[in-house]
Description:
The protein has helices at 118-132, 136-147, 149-156, 171-189, 195-204, 209-212, 223-227, 230-243, 250-261, 278-306, 334-340; strands spanning 22-37, 40-49, 52-58, 74-84, 87-98. By secondary structure, it is of the alpha+beta class. It folds into 2 domains: 14-98, CATH 2.40.50.140; 111-297, Hypothetical protein af1432 (Orthogonal Bundle). A 5-stranded mixed barrel has the order 1-2-3-5-4. A hairpin with a 2-residue loop joins strand 2 (40-49) and strand 3 (52-58). The chain is globular and about 70 Å long.
Amino acid sequence: MSSPSGPAGKSIFVKDLVPGTPVRELFLLAEAKTGNARNGPYWSLTLQDATGRVEAKIWSPHSQAHAELPAGRLAYVQGMVETFRDKPQINIESLRLVDNDAPGVDLGWFVPVSAVRPDELLAQLEEMLRVELSYKPWRRFCRRVLADEEIRARLLAGFGAKTVHHAYLGGLLEHTLSVARLCLTLCDRYPNLDRETLLVGAVFHDLGKAWEIEGGLVSDYTDEGKLLGHILIGLEKLEPHLAKIADLPRELALHFKHIVISHHGQYEFGSPKLPVTAEAMVLHHADNLDAKLNIFAATHRDMDKAGQTWSPYQRYLDRQVHLPARTPREEKTEKNAKKSDGQCLLPLKA
């Protein structure tokens, strides 16, 4: 930070903290709780940015300057980086809360963000619909939904989940785009599928997550999310737009809604209905596959950093994960290229 008066850019991240050096920087206050020591009350904090978290303490008498420190707020801290139990810890000398929407603040400094910017992901999604949809009622429906200012803003700020998969800014759009592409690939393999209804279902299957999970700096479930869940919320948001497409046959609208509400696949996973059409089954498995592979990718990154080939037990996969050796990449020889080009071991049609 160039000045304590306001954010003008973030130059030091959690990953950059070095014990024995001073720090004057903006962080997200992820957790805050009080305690008592021999010399008086203290604050025990967890500070966060996009690169990780660090513990921090405000000892007495500095701690008594703060009657309340609400989690989810930005804080400009000044102090010294120390070591506690072989990990960096900031001994804070002063702390000032900063408005989360202060000019110049980039949310990407404080929460993990998708590799591709959310606005670019949304543009790719709209281009996919423009290219793939030829049925005019579906085209008009998708345009209506994505032109809704509230829906658009929520999608751009959406997380794919709180903690399980795609739990980062842009994660909802990244997951949606990936699932839609998987569905199109399966439609190429199984051409009897209703390509366009399935695609529209894939694009909007998780729309309710934009209201189920609080966007921005606080990734937590909303009251609406806890009480209703994203499947019901999504249908409520889509229903008014569906009603405006007068020439969309009732049977297609009904199938679309079934695809959306059954995408969790099983009752025990929160699905109101089991998939009873081929398209609904495809979406369920595409959704599940993309979520699981995102968890594998995140686990593999952590293992690679730690130099491990086996992970600790992964709760959401119900197993340990192995990081296997990779086949070396070699350039195709002319002989092998001719041998493989154009070959298909399975027929194109079922």
